[in-house]
């Protein structure tokens, strides 16, 4: 079963949820990518403190974003919009830091963060 299929079964969901569901899905995945990247950063030589911090912050923000995005009963539009904007900021910050490091886990993390930020941007106009 897909996340879209699950959410489409909600009694208060309309047809305008596809972008928000995609953003929630990528935020959930991004949270896992960032957590994994932070863990791999610990094993790297050199000072990876800032990368670890940005990855862990991004992981937490993305996890919260995914949870808020799939809640469809009633609505708290202002909070959801702010959360999506925070997710974009956290993802862009994390991606910029990860792109400074020449290792495969940071490269993948940065790619996922950019995808997540893009999907959150696309979902913003649908949050009404």
UniProtKB/TrEMBL annotation:
Q: Which residues form a coiled coil?
A: none
TM segments?
A: none
| Source organism, top-level taxon | Bacteria
Cleavable signal peptide = none
Q: What is this protein called?
A: Four-helix bundle copper-binding protein
Tell me the classification of the organism that encodes this protein: Bacteria, Pseudomonadati, Pseudomonadota, Alphaproteobacteria, Sphingomonadales
